[in-house]
Specification:
Blueprint: H1 2-28, H2 34-42, H3 44-86, H4 92-124, H5 131-177
């Protein structure tokens, strides 16, 4: 139950963040105006505090989410696939989904690390001295954060694919074995 609460909370935070990022990314396409530079300089401390809070909350979410994703693979998918293989049952479809899931899980980890490095780099820029570089660094972090979100979406698609592959396996097994539990 706690995992579901964490997952729902993460999904809500991520969707809210992504909406904010989409709006801000559109605004960021243009070069900074003098007024925007002045606002960055004037709110530098506040912006950095917000970015630090985001870094901490994203790190916690990444650890929790990463553990759940890893557990799904190592405690559910792989043991089930192994069990089928040990019983000489055809689990090629399940193995293919598990393999793709593992590749995407690695991409999620790597993309998150890239995002985190970019966010830290943005935080380290003195936005009172160089608001343009600060702005560019934040935009780069947003782009990388969006990539992490895309990875999360693909992981969920693979989870759905695995669920469907299990259902297909079960139907085929029942049809071949005549077992209709």
């Amino acid at each position: 139950m706690m995992k579901r609460i964490v997952l729902v909370g993460f999904a809500m935070l991520l969707s809210t963040s992504m909406a904010f990022i989409a709006v801000e990314a559109t605004r960021a396409q243009a070069a900074l105006t003098d007024e925007q530079r002045d606002r960055i300089v004037a709110n530098c401390v506040s912006i950095k505090n917000t970015l630090n809070q985001l870094k901490v909350s994203d790190a916690l979410l990444r650890v929790n989410r990463g553990q759940i994703y890893e557990s799904m693979r190592s405690k559910l998918m792989e043991p089930f696939n192994d069990r089928l293989a040990n019983n000489s049952l055809d689990a090629r479809g399940l193995v293919a989904v598990t393999t793709s899931y593992g590749i995407e899980l690695n991409a999620f980890r790597s993309d998150y690390q890239n995002y985190e490095r970019q966010l830290i780099a943005a935080i380290r820029i003195d936005c009172t001295e160089d608001p343009d570089a600060f702005h560019v660094a934040i935009e780069n972090a947003r782009t990388l954060r969006q990539q992490v979100n895309d990875d999360v979406q693909r992981l969920h698609e693979f989870i759905d694919d695995y669920r469907n592959a299990v259902s297909d396996f079960r139907l085929n097994y029942e049809r071949v074995s005549g077992d209709s539990r």
